[in-house]
């Protein structure tokens, strides 16, 4: 039996929030090439903004400018993540003002009905399927790792003064290994890539309600951003929605 062709549409929005003077998040995507990226930068001065922009640019450049023959797409994507890490690390080594800069990264790469998710840090990817929201990625954060080991409850993690401490980032060391997840998509699936400025402010149940609502992807992005701002908007907020049709 023939398999239906899956086509993807996407929308994205970013906002500096209500408290931060600048926006150190970055995003980029190419529907044509099936590549979607969100990064949340960190570092003094404008270093976080530079790190996140380098990462997005490097991932897109490597996955849209002609693919290496004979190399599987997920392998290419992982190589692109490592190249982005090296580009940030090298730039920081050359400029003392940028020393220590880094960024989280989540990336979604799709090819027909197959999808691969990569993450470093505590930005997240979710999938909405048949009205139910599920988190794909696992945060590389001190408190989330404590929760997974049973040493802290989820509510304790939410209140912890250490909840901003991430255990893995792009650019802070000369080598990084992303987590990767392989999925099969179905028509109607909606993937959400976001920075923690959204998930820190808006509970998963509220995100699910917004994503379930009818309307364009652009409208749902705007509603998610507005919900995070109404809840306090303490950090930059970025959301990319990708729908399989």
Summarize the structure in words.
- By secondary structure, this protein is α+β, with helices and mostly antiparallel strands.
- It has one domain: Phosphatase 2c, domain 1.
- It contains 7 helices and 11 strands.
- Strands 2, 3, 4, 5, 6 and 9 form a 6-stranded antiparallel sheet that branches. It has a 5-stranded antiparallel sheet with strand order 1-11-10-7-8.
- Helix 1 (47-64) packs antiparallel against helix 2 (73-94).
- The radius of gyration is 17 Å and the shape is globular.
- The mean pLDDT is 94.
Main sheet overview: 6 strands, antiparallel
Evaluate the radius of gyration: 17 Å
Tell me the series of helices and strands, N- to C-terminal.
EEEHHEEEEEHHEEHHHE
Helix proportion: 25-40%
* Count of spatially separate domains: 1
What is the residue-averaged pLDDT? 94
Number of helices: 7
Distance between the termini: 19 Å
Structural class: alpha+beta
CATH hierarchy, class: Alpha Beta
